[in-house]
Design brief:
The protein is mainly beta. Helix content is about 15%, strand content about 35%.
Amino acid sequence: MFLQTSKTGLLGLHCPRYWHGTRTQNINDPQSSQAEPMRNSIFGLILTLTALILFIPPLQASERGSQTNLPIPRFVSLKTDTGNVRRGPSLNHRIDWVFKRRNMPLKVIDEYGHWRRVTDRDDEGGWVHHSLLSGTRTVIIQVDLMPIYARADPSTLVNAHLQAGVVERLRKCTRDWCQISVDGYRGWAIKTGLWGVGADELRD
């Protein structure tokens, strides 16, 4: 379908030096003998806290697009019959691919100005002008002769069987099922058989 020509953060802990130099200790001094265990306890506490901080995994903040403030990655669809896919985010960059299927789902993985970096279900892609993309959600059937059920229940009536590669309009989604429609057919498909929707995505 396409023609290809080419294609820690570090967390540190700074501990101030609480004791400078050395001093002679009188072993007969009860206060001096009591101070040593206290220092050992403080050092042990510092080492324990340091180990805990270093092994706590960093929080994963949801990434947002620099231009739209929309989630990255996210799914969109091709608005036009053809779409040039360029090596970089400008008209000066060469065309590596040409998408030739209106409504095909694409995944936006980056943004720069009026350009969006996208991939298809084969993880191939590049930079596309935002005017070629639509927020209308579609999916591609991944499994050949995939059953489309009347309800989100495999024991219900099968409305149709769809071939792999068919593009469908995405409507509702539960945890495991999505409602889709195409050419007058509407029904529910198992989510794992679709490309163009997040595994944990819910839609009303």
